[in-house]
Write a structure and sequence with these properties.
The protein has 564 residues and is mainly alpha-helical. 63% of the residues lie in helices and 5% in strands.
Length: 564
């Protein structure tokens, strides 16, 4: 902390980075509802920890949830205890992780090269698309990525430097263990494969000592045992077995409709990390590296890309661990050169991508403004009806947000041409952050309104009532968090007890039993049901009342006093 305060007092560049990171990540995170599925899913697990008082077994709808370990949910629970059970509380851990990540990047860059390099590296990461988006979200990956980044860094230092080898092995193991507690075995896999490829490339001339290996292994085990071991001791191995089986299923099968082609993550990373991937290209394609650390980060980049490209289930944020090594490689390429020194093809790609994103900034609000002209060409009735939400309107000024993004690009190139790279990046980062914040408040909030807000507001209005609440015909977690589902009344728990002898079941066929119970069973409480506009089953059940239609959703009530 003393080092941080000293740097803040003495370095104008560090003060700028810190202040912009705080302003970029914190103020807007509570202004938009959490998005189905992942954001709401994770926040609900944290909320149920608070409600049940059980902070060791991860749950969704008070049923075991074996997809993720609990560390991120512990952070969310602590945040929601402080800020309330709301969007800000759910997203604050990632905003904090973003600020910490930027600080870590700065200090590592300063240590490895110079304060100027650390500044350039931090500013580059701060001024890229997907990192800014994820640090404003409530998904697990920003915290997970920070732990992996620190684990691999300390492991590299333990392997390549003679001083403090054992201490660095200890820190590498601690952060790897924290990654395991955040997202599971993939945390160890990424660290181990990076290490393995590195020593193979070095022809086994760089190897850890037995003591280093033992320190690393024991620290990983000790940290991860805090939950994995305690879970086995307290509840037996079944939960851990289900957890491991799910991880295998993610890798070997397409889960929840997330099958994508092999090249999916290459496209996501290339476009989503702008400008990181473009500026890092000269480093990625050259064979000779400036340093072993550049080689190490290049290996980590390719390990992540290949592993998640091979995996059958592909989701956008799975490849987000590439962003940190990619930002280092981009900083290595540009920190000592002028704009005109960049290869011509790199400059052309950069300008093309800048134009592409400028059009995107401009087009999103225009689609909202002129949706009536666009909807005749949309085949999905839910999307068409979503555009018809009377509470949402684009008034025109939203398109002017693009001015900040264009100004960011212009100032970046202008000052870099004048050999003022740090100043170029400062202008770029500041204006880009303003563009992203304005987009969050005035564009993303309205897009969320088209996609899910009518449903969420319906659930919020029912909070505190002793009723059943459920979507019918589609999967969602919104009803749990925004209705603030209680243990009783709870149709899932009732059906789990009646049909499955209270076994730990969360997914189908339990969801099918819940649907049958709410539509046709002998219910003791009123049931409020939500369907998408194209779903017609409830319209044909005479004792179920259609309340209203809004956006792409239809809302119903089944009175407990009326039996089939």
């Amino acid at each position: 902390m003393r080092l941080l305060l000293t740097e803040y007092k003495e370095s104008k560049n560090f003060r700028f980075i810190f202040i912009v990171a705080v302003i970029a990540f914190v103020p807007t995170i509570g202004m938009v509802h959490l998005f189905d599925w992942d954001e709401i899913n994770f926040a609900e697990s944290a909320r149920e920890m608070m409600v049940s008082g059980d902070y060791f077994q991860v749950q969704v709808n008070f049923s075991p949830f074996w997809e993720k370990p609990p560390l991120f949910f512990w952070l969310q629970s602590a945040s929601m205890h402080t800020f309330g059970v709301n969007e800000f509380g759910a997203r604050f851990p990632n905003a904090l992780a973003g600020i910490v990540t930027i600080i870590v990047i700065y200090f590592l860059g300063k240590k490895e090269k110079s304060a100027r390099f650390g500044t350039i590296w931090a500013l580059l990461y701060l001024a890229s698309f997907l990192p800014q988006i994820y640090f404003r979200s409530a998904i697990i990956d920003p915290v997970f990525n920070l732990f992996i980044f620190l684990s691999t860094y300390y492991l590299f230092k333990a392997l390549t430097e003679s001083e403090l080898k054992n201490k660095r092995a200890l820190w590498a193991g601690i952060f790897c263990g924290l990654a395991l507690l955040t997202k599971g075995p993939v945390g160890f896999l990424l660290v181990f494969l990076t290490f393995l490829v590195f020593i193979v490339i070095k022809k086994f001339k760089i190897l850890p000592t037995f003591k280093q290996f033992a320190i690393f292994a024991l620290s990983v085990f000790a940290v991860s045992f805090l939950w994995f071991g305690a879970e086995v001791i307290n509840n037996g191995p079944w939960f851990l077995v289900e957890f491991i089986n799910y991880q295998i299923e993610l890798f070997s099968q397409g889960v929840a409709g997330h099958e994508q082609p092999f090249y999916y993550h290459f496209i996501v990373v290339f476009f989503g990390t702008f400008p990181l991937a473009v500026l890092a290209l000269p480093s990625l394609i050259r064979r000779k590296r400036e340093s072993e650390l550049e080689q190490w980060w290049t290996i980590l980049f390719w390990v992540v890309m290949i592993i998640f490209s091979i995996a059958t289930t592909k989701i956008v944020h799975y490849s987000s661990m590439t962003y940190l090594p990619l930002s280092f490689l981009a900083a290595v390429v540009i920190h000592q050169i002028n704009w005109s020194d960049l290869k011509k093809w790199t400059r052309r790609i950069y300008v093309f991508m800048a134009v592409f994103f400028s059009i995107a900034f401009l087009a999103l609000p225009l689609i909202g403004m002129f949706n009536a002209s666009i909807t005749p060409y949309i085949e999905d009735p839910f999307a068409v009806a979503g555009f018809d939400n009377p509470d949402i309107s684009f008034v025109g000024f939203e398109s002017f947000i693009v001015v900040f993004f264009v100004a960011a690009i212009v100032m970046f190139i202008k000052f870099w041409k004048a050999d003022k790279l740090v100043k170029a990046l400062q202008w770029n980062t500041l204006l880009f952050s303003v563009a992203m914040s304005l987009t969050m408040v005035f564009v993303v909030k309205k897009i969320e309104g088209y996609a899910q807000r009518p449903m969420i507001e319906f659930y919020e209005n029912l909070q505190g009532e002793d009723v059943y609440v459920s979507p019918i015909g589609f999967k969602s977690y919104a009803q749990f968090f925004y209705f603030q589902q209680t243990e009783w009344p709870n149709a899932h728990l009732e059906m789990r007890e009646e049909k499955f002898n209270n076994e730990a079941v969360l997914y189908a066929p339990l969801e099918q039993e819940v649907k049958l119970f709410l539509l046709y069973g002998d219910i003791e409480h009123d049931a409020y049901l939500v369907t998408k506009i194209q779903h017609e089953e409830l319209d044909n059940i005479e004792y179920i009342e259609h309340l209203y239609t809004k956006g792409g959703y239809k809302f119903y009530k089944r009175d407990a006093n009326i039996t089939p």
